[in-house]
Amino acid sequence: MQELPQHMRRESDVPKLLNLIIKGGGPQGIERPLGQLSRLITKGQICDFQCMWLLDGLGIISKVIKTGMAEFSEISKR
């Protein structure tokens, strides 16, 4: 992941949620951090949008979806 300025990392939860998605979602599964990320983005904070752009958030989410659609994947298909 690309380096973010410290002030953006402190102001936004997007980097933490994207890292959690990359690692598989934790004990609750991947659905919970994806839901949190979607609720966070709908609030419309500029810092969150910038973090999604700089960290290629949509690319990360699409890669997780592709992996989840593969046969015998560990990722839930809900």
Description:
The radius of gyration is 13 Å and the shape is elongated. The protein is mainly α. It starts with 5 loop residues before the first helix and ends in a 9-residue tail after the last helix. Helix 2 packs parallel to helix 5. The model has no long low-confidence stretch (mean pLDDT 82). It is 63% helix and 0% strand. It has one domain (6-69).
List its salient traits.
78 residues; mainly alpha
β content, as a range? under 5%
Number of domains: 1
Structural class: mainly alpha
Note the total helix count: 5
Helix content: 55-70%
How would you describe the shape? Answer: elongated
Return Rg in Å.
13 Å
- Kindly state the number of beta strands: 0
Uncertain segments of ≥5 residues (pLDDT<50)? Answer: none
Our measurement of the CA-to-CA distance between the termini, rounded to an integer number of angstroms, reads 27 Å
Order of helices and strands: HHHHH
Major sheet details: none
Mean pLDDT: 82
Short structural description:
The protein is mainly α and 78 residues long. Helices cover 63% and strands 0% of the residues.
List the helices and strands and how they pair.
Blueprint: H1 6-11, H2 14-22, H3 31-42, H4 46-54, H5 57-69
Helix pairs in contact: 2-3, 2-5
